[in-house]
Amino acid sequence: MATTSRSAWFVIGAASAWALPWALDILKEQLRRRQDERKRRSDEHNIVIESSATSTEMTSAINKNNTMTPKIMDAADLDLRMIRKAEGVIRYRTSGITVVIERCSNDWNYSAILRTAEALGVQNVYIVDPPTMTMDIDVDNDAEECTAASASDKKIHPKQAKVALTKEEVANRRAHHLFAQNATDWLTITNFDSTQECIDKLKATGHAIWATDLSQEAVPLTVPDLVEANSWPVFPNKIALVFGTEAVGVTQLFLDQADLRVYLPLYGFADSLNLSVATALVVFAVLQMEPRYVGHMSEEERRELRSIWFPKLAQQRLLTGSQKKKRHKLLARIDNCKVLEEKRRRYEQQQHQQAGISGDEDTLRPLTYEQVVKLGQLSQLQHELHELEQSARFHEGSFQAVADLIDNPPDPMTDLRRIDEHRICFVGKNTKSIYKDAWKGLAATTTKATDTSSTAAYFRSRAKINGDN
Questions:
Q1: pTM above 0.85, yes or no
Q2: Residue 78: closest CA among 455, 454, 461
Q3: Listed residue (287, 260, 264, 289) closest to 275, CA to CA
Q4: pLDDT per residue over 291-314, tens digit each?
Q5: Which residues lie below 8 Å from residue 253, measured CB to CB, with a gap of 6+?
Q6: Which runs of E-coded beta strand occur in 91-238?
Q7: Which residues pair with 330 in a beta bridge?
Q8: DSSP string, 280-297
Q9: Separation in Å, CA 132 to CA 89, 155, 157, 361, 410
């Protein structure tokens, strides 16, 4: 029995001695695989950390190069408040990202995209076959309904070109277009008649073309996926983010000539987003992943923006309250006359070509007698506008008011948020009245006087003083 036990222990010992190296090899292989996995995760993490470090370094560099070191925020007693804010916007502006809108057929989305691009600091917007923002509206304040359609709607949906709108809907569309118009005041917009023309321009200016796409060929906008696609962390110097029409997205021509197709990851049943929302999220994602685009602009480009923006800001303050109201009404009436002028031109062109659109509801009609009378006032309205602007030295005075600030701007705001006293409630008087109790005491419903050097009187005095020198 003892001999058998010793033999068993001998066999076990021999087997263990033989198996130990094999077990150690397996253990080493497992450890190596774990180390490789940790290293891979660490490398991906380091990319994010490096990006974060780059963000800090670049922010510091932006601050240093743009003399934005002093932290300046909006305040009630801040001198040259609007000029400082404009300079802050210029310092954060980027010409490294260009937003491309290809055949957007919805003017609401169009105006929202422009506002989004401006708010996120994108200076350049390329538009292929843009919708017409001036609506073809027969303006009649006494009418219960009006008709409106953008030029692009007529091209894409000819049978839906004429849409009945209530007066309230017309007012809402005009207000929405006004937001877009305010955004375009601070954007550089280039229009193209064709997709190929836009592509040629992008390639000639050295842009890498990233087309948004919902197909499985597109690369998700995440660091690991961009690493795998060899598109991270080295971003191109200039990048064009292309967004297509609401119905089908970017055209095949753009997809075929794009350097990369990109996709914003979604995690719900909906597999697409509203066009303006998608634009906002994609641009924001790119800025977060590559913060070097923030403030990516040459000093010559910045000076050019100052020479345009500073006088424009002064213009807004050279007119008195009554002059502003009169000018606003004149501009509205002139715009209406130009709409009628275009309507007459298209009707005459149709008559000349003898190719009217089939269907009475879509056939262009001549102007009514009342419309002809309104159109006949165009020259007089333009003359009144010219006289008003001349009396206020609107153009010449606005430049003279800020001429010395273009080359020697004041320290910019480094944080562009308004102080509570300067926040504005962007609604009409009727809406304010309806919600006055619910909104009582909220920051956007209160106002406070600003520093004297930011008032209209200050800019008017500068225009006169500089004009006399």
A1: no
A2: 454
A3: 264
A4: 999 999 999 999 999 999 999 888
A5: 195, 196, 199
A6: 94-102, 122-128, 145-148, 163-166, 188-192, 208-212, 219-220
A7: none
A8: HHHHHHHHHH-GGGTT--
A9: 28, 11, 14, 21, 38
